[in-house]
């Protein structure tokens, strides 16, 4: 019985769950207000450095990520983001919820794509709270840490769990 159960363990399916939740309006009432979203990631995939992480990102950062993924993926299609609607009919809450769902679908598709998963920008986006310029610097080896160090540093300080 011993060796049989061990074989099953090795074939354990890799699962990556990514959730976009808890949209929050920042700088509410000011001209530079924006919404950011909590991205919660839980995985047993060897592709990820940290098995669980939680970061906050805004739409503009998703747009940057999609552009970078597209640039590096070659012919692999990158999933679409929800549109940036300036003329939205309905409540703001409704718009934010639609966008949240769209962002979640975007990330769910991205993390299932092996080619996109090999992009270290994606990992820093999902598993560190580095800003876009810091992610760029890190990926190009100009940051104070390597990609893995940045992710592990964030995971250890685990600000991701502070609700």
From TrEMBL:
Any GO BP: vesicle organization
Top-level taxon of origin: Eukaryota
Gene3D superfamilies: Phox-like domain
One Gene Ontology term of the molecular function aspect: phosphatidylinositol phosphate binding
UniProt cross-references to SMART domains, sorted A to Z: PX
Membrane topology classification: Peripheral membrane protein
Sequence similarity: Belongs to the sorting nexin family.
Protein name: Sorting nexin-11
Organism of derivation: Dryobates pubescens
